């Protein structure tokens, strides 16, 4: 059984973000995601964790630097 493989064959894949069917082909610029929002979420996932890190040391540190500010 010989199946010719065209260069631009569209494939349905699972979107890594939401798990919905996403077209993996030239018609979908956001592949392998299903839409732009899912792509942005995935790209911003690491950045979100960076911003989620709280900085409690900043407050007491500046307080030690200038106790007179209180
Ligand atoms: Zn999606």
Quick summary:
The protein is α+β, with helices and mostly antiparallel strands. The chain contains two helices and two strands.
Task: Summarize the structure in words.
- The protein is α+β, with helices and mostly antiparallel strands and 70 residues long.
- It is 36% helix and 11% strand.
- It has two helices and two strands, in the order ββαα.
- A hairpin with a 6-residue loop joins β1 and β2.
- The longest helix is centred in the middle third of the chain and has 17 residues, at 36-52.
- It is rod-shaped.
- Bound molecules: zinc ion.
- The site of zinc ion has 8 residues, from loops.
Please give the order of strands in the largest beta sheet: 1-2
Report the C-alpha radius of gyration, rounded. Answer: 23 Å
Bound molecules: zinc ion
Question: Order of SSEs, N→C?
Answer: EEHH
Average pLDDT for all residues: 77
Structural class: alpha+beta
The quaternary organization reads as: single chain
Number of strands: 2
Shape: rod-shaped
Which segments are poorly predicted (pLDDT under 50) over 5 or more consecutive residues? none
For the record, give the distance between the C-alpha atoms at the N and C termini, rounded to a whole number: 81 Å
Strand content: 5-15%
Largest sheet: 2 strands, antiparallel
Total of DSSP H or I helical runs spanning 4+ residues: 2
